[in-house]
Amino acid sequence: MELPGTVALVTGGASGIGKATCERFAAEGARVLVVDVDDSGAAAVAADVGGTAFAADAGDPDQVDAAFTHCVDELGGVDVAFLNAGIAIGVSDLTTLDEATYRRIMRVNVDGVVYGLRAAIRAMTERGGGAIVATASLAGIVPFPPDPVYDATKHAVVGLIRSVAPTLAPLGITANCVNPGMTDTNIMGEDAKRALADLDFPLMPASQIAEAVVHAATSGVTGQCFVCQPGREHLAYEFRDVPGPRTASARGRVPPGIRDDSKVFEGFPNP
After folding, report:
1. Does the pTM exceed 0.85?
2. Rounded to an integer, what distance in angstroms lies between the CA atom of residue 268 and that of residue 80?
3. Does domain 7-239 have CATH number 3.40.50.720?
4. E strand or H helix that includes residue 131
């Protein structure tokens, strides 16, 4: 995909990675719909990039659908959907986790991606294809004890995107994740930023993640998780296949992602 002349919809576009990606998309020649629950913030970013703003809560299915409908009606379609809205709660001790806090992070980080993915697929199917990118996290592929529920939500995003990618390929739609490490955004509190600075641990600028998003949207690959770390180029994470069954009845039916390491399968290709 070439970005000039395309239409990009970005959730959580009023700040951080979303804002940086809106700026990058616009610089590449795309028309941008900035979607955020912060309507004034979205309007400010849209004004800066020559785009359009739409106020919507990523965790509300009706509002997400309305954002995509607005994009189609006003900008002609959706070529790229960057599902970026997300929050952290910073609760390491699950015994102190209250129901409201748990539901709040799940509805934004998981429900928001599901609703955005559903709306994007509908819009892109009518358009004949497109690219979907979701913000996961390094916490989506490694443990993160300081915020295990946040970690769980990002593992969910990784699993969702990797699972849906093969079904979208025949529709001409790619689906990928970006998995940033520590990034200088509002999701990280000032105390955490100072602590990392004291440890001389570098934070990535949001623009570095925006570069990975553009690559994920335009490269033509699908089902990948692009890991972003300070001082490194983004790269696709290599997931290892899990061991397959050792039963003759399973021969020839090993699904993708399952390693056939049994003598039973010698001479039979893994489908």
Report:
1. yes
2. 39
3. yes
4. strand 130-135
